[in-house]
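Inputs:
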Amino acid sequence: MNDEPVVLASDVRMSYGDTQVLHGVDFSVAPGEVSCIIGPSGSGKSTFLRCVNGLEPVLGGSLRVLGEQVGYSLRDGKYHAWTPKEFAAFRTRIGMVFQRFNLFAHQSALENVACAPIHVGGVPGDKARELAMEQLAQVGLADHAHKRPHQLSGGQQQRVAIARALAMNPTLMLFDEPTSALDPELVDEVLEVMKKLALDGMTMVVVTHEIGFAREVGDTLTFFDEGVVVEQGAPAELLADCKQPRTRAFLSSVL
Amino acid sequence: MRTEPIADPSGKPISIARTWHWGRWLAGLIALVVCGWLVALVVANPRLDWGAVLDYLFDPLILSGILVTIEISVLATVVGLVLGVFLAVMRLSHNPVLQWLATLYIWFFRGTPVLVQLIFWYNLAFLFPELILKIPFTMIGLKWDTNQVMTGFTSAMLGLGLNLAAYFAETVRAGIQAVDRGQTEAAYALGMTPGKRMRVIVLPQALRIIIPPTGNEFISMLKTTSLVYVVAGHDLMTNASQIYKSNNLIMELLIVASLWYMLMTAVATVLQGRLERRFGSDAVRLVRGGGLAARVLPRQPKPEGTR
């Protein structure tokens, strides 16, 4: 079934202790789609993204990603919670890029990219480093392959992080505010890499404040607020003519 | 300090007067008098036989004791470090039973005096005259006489090592917790299991924080071995005491032992300084250094060879 959504969320609820963060999110992403999520901070958009690859547990509703109910597998008519191994196997199919890059501080750029193939994929070291070198070249960082994260600018670090997330050939890429921690002049180099990825047909969910990127590259734009999806649509239409007052208020504050 | 003269508005150079640090001179004077007096009291004491100190300084019994002290220190430290890492990982594990076991271990071994633990191990034969290692419900296995296994040396190594593990576990735990949470998340997002994340990502980074205190633990261990005296472990202190029990030159032999302990500590301090300079600022080189760590992380190819 090629038409099955890559992400299919219905009534997803989640809370940190007593604070409910997601109040029933309905959301879906088709294969090859670039889906951008915007919304004020604290609206639950990052939390939802983290639920998609199982970094946060979903406490209610159904969240299906890549054909699996996240965190559970169906056996003998019951859902059984995943073991850490099953979580790990699931996550190899999803790449994630973080706001704060989270590059492994004790490894060079090349080692960061080769790390998962070697330690998770079982690819021999030389082969993995060769592939990692190609991936770094793709994001324009072949010259910086042997530098440590602290020797790289924020934009370069985030490009390494994207190459690292791509190293396991994921079917789905998640971006959690990938440009929010960057100096303004470094934002474009990261967006360029993401744009290229989108043009190559990667399925992407991008939580972002870059309205321009959403308009240009996104297939759908979703507005989150207070733990629910307020409005959703094609970026150009939603940006030009949104129906909900909350969306309008948010857009007028960021545009 | 500036020595170059300052030009006044007319351009004439005016030299700078010397600053007198009265406080320093006064403190120095007092320190000299007090320390000099104390040293003189001991050195010039007619009851102290300095010739005997010199005679026993290189006594074969003392020298063999030094060797045993170093052996016990090194072995006990290794036992403590390895076990300490496991305990720390257990304490931070999500498995409540493991957590609880590690907490219990740490509480027990920190809660009882190391002297008591040493005597306990040495006298294990009272509880278990024989140590038997066998497959349950069969007669296949090995058997030892406890008194032969639990010599002063092994009980010292075990007692000090198990004790150090409890303290070191806390050091390792602090090191692990100091590694940014984002590193763990990125490791999970790449498809690592919790164990792999710990070995490949977190522990190598925690080393940077853990290594400096290990030097300290070792230096402390060098002198804690003197407690082995109570179980006759033939270490430096035990041997020194054997000599003074026979000839009553107690002070002289304590001085001999102290001189050697000070020398060992000085050497260990120099080594610790090197260790910190090499690894303290950058744990990565340790990871490439060799042994287990080198296998955990791949060797970085030579920069010129890859492009």
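Chain B has one domain: 54-282. Flag for discussion at group meeting.
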